[in-house]
Amino acid sequence: MLLAALLVRADEVVSSEELMKEIWGTRAPRQAIAALHVYVSQLRKFLRQNGRRDSPIKTARSGYVLRLETDELDFRDFLDLVREGRQAQRAGSTEEACEAYEEGLGLWRGPVLEDLRDGPIVNGFVCWAEQSRLECVEWYVDAGLELGRHRELVSYLYAQLEELPLHEAFYRQLMLALYRSGCRADALSVYQSARIVLSDELGQEPSAALRGLHHAVLVDAPELELATV
Prior knowledge:
Radius of gyration: 23 Å
CATH topology of the largest domain: Serine Threonine Protein Phosphatase 5, Tetratricopeptide repeat
CATH class of the largest domain: Mainly Alpha
């Protein structure tokens, strides 16, 4: 938990009080500050085992800071790739954008810090990180749809909805991918599934955007076809 908190706030000073709250919450032992010093010492020794001459953990006036090189944290690489993808997409380089998003998503290895979600530092980071991944998935799919990869994306989107059944954007993207794949009935079935899930879980109807797409599929609106240059 100490390592996770320092990594989340890499290159920033994390106060001893924040670290104690992260590790023990409101149940800190009497000798918490002494125990924290022991944990930091043990962590420094562990990190030096990786061939480092000096520990990356430095003592600051009010706490500790973990110093990292620019290429030592996957999440920073992920954010850089997402930034590259957005810039490429805005510039009309959809292929380049899709590749950047795909490379960024390839860095993920399951849920973020799954067993360490007890303290405010890690919990706040997890929420932000998962939202960032979700946005990247949406942009990746949008870029893929623009490139005509709708058939490839159908199974991918079904898997995303299996994980996040309340995320409405995936229903919209899946409906469009199915429609462009010649599976109009399946696209309409996805809309009905969205209605049921959203009603049962949230007590609400699909958004205007999803209802509009449903109508467009029903009437075979020409704007649903893949744009050609």
